[in-house]
TrEMBL record:
Designated name of the protein: Taurine catabolism dioxygenase TauD, TfdA family
Classification of source organism: Bacteria, Pseudomonadati, Pseudomonadota, Betaproteobacteria, Burkholderiales
GO molecular function terms listed in the Swiss-Prot or TrEMBL record: 2-oxoglutarate-dependent dioxygenase activity
Gene3D superfamilies: Clavaminate synthase-like
Matching InterPro entries: AlphaKG_dependent_hydroxylases, TauD-like_sf, TauD/TfdA-like
Domain TauD/TfdA-like: 24-249
Length: 253
């Protein structure tokens, strides 16, 4: 093995160690293209096993497709409220990853991240009790308006096999589904019961995001990875149709 290759491998290994530390510390990290020389899949194997998504495939293209102009959906240009991925999963994927092929050039389209556990600590005693004790029926359709949906009843913050898992969906709490249809959005039309704990949590999370979320505009060729049992993410609206990311779900043992 040449010295240059040996140096490159050592370099990549220390880069990984640094990013793993950052992931542990702040709940998310961005891997640069140099760390992805052997491919995104090889890089993600450091974190766990890539698992199939709602479509049964290992990857999901976060890319604008026609038909989703009015809904807060990954394949639209619309913003998406604060959520964790796959709250109906038991467990949800431990890590989420977004590999950026081409970021929006319009200055928007940020993936925003905030610490869900810190958000929980910011709540009043009544809501703290609610998130720990009251099961919430999470519901997810694969595509807005589809008939088949997955559901799971579990408290927002639960302990599963000795690990704390945080689940959240602004869409679900306000519109009844992780991927609400246009009809569900119109039905609600801004009428929320201010005493409903789920509506209160959705509103509080949106405000928390305004002040505390880190806006990440993943550069082309980079891979954003975050801890989906701890972090909440959202997306800002954008206008550039060419934005293209590939999403991965990673499960750890
Ligand atoms: O487009 C993004 O930055 C994130 C979209 C999203 O929430 C997802 O694909 O899970
Ligand atoms: Fe998401």
């Amino acid at each position: 093995m040449s010295n240059a290759i040996a140096f490159d491998m050592a370099d990549t290994a220390s880069l990984f160690d640094a990013t793993c530390d950052e992931l542990d510390r702040q709940g998310w990290t961005v891997l640069p293209p140099q760390a992805l020389g052997n491919g995104v899949r090889v890089a993600l194997e450091r974190f766990g096993k890539i698992v199939p998504q709602y479509n049964g495939e290992d990857t999901w293209e976060v890319k604008v497709k026609p038909g989703f102009e009015k809904v807060p959906y990954s394949q639209s240009r619309n913003g998406i409220g604060p959520h964790t991925e796959v709250p109906v999963g038991s467990p949800p994927p431990r890590y989420l990853a977004l590999h950026c092929h081409r970021q929006a050039r319009c200055g928007q389209g940020h993936t925003r991240l905030a610490d869900g556990v810190a958000f929980c600590r910011s709540l009043d005693a009544e809501l703290q009790r609610y998130i720990h004790e009251v099961p919430v029926r999470f519901a997810a359709t694969l595509v807005p308006g589809a008939t088949s949906r997955q559901t799971l009843s579990v408290p927002i913050l639960s302990d599963e096999n000795g690990r704390s898992i945080f689940r959240f969906s602004y869409n679900q709490f306000l519109y009844g589904d992780v991927n609400p249809s246009e009809a569900a959005l119109n039905d609600a039309s801004g009428q929320f019961d201010p005493n409903d704990p789920l509506a209160r949590l959705a509103t509080l999370a949106a405000a928390y995001f305004e002040s505390d979320a880190a806006p990440v505009l993943i550069p082309d060729g980079h891979l954003l990875v975050w801890d989906n049992h701890r972090m909440i993410h959202s997306r800002s609206t954008f206008s550039d149709h060419a934005r293209h990311l590939t999403r991965y779900w990673v499960q750890s043992s």
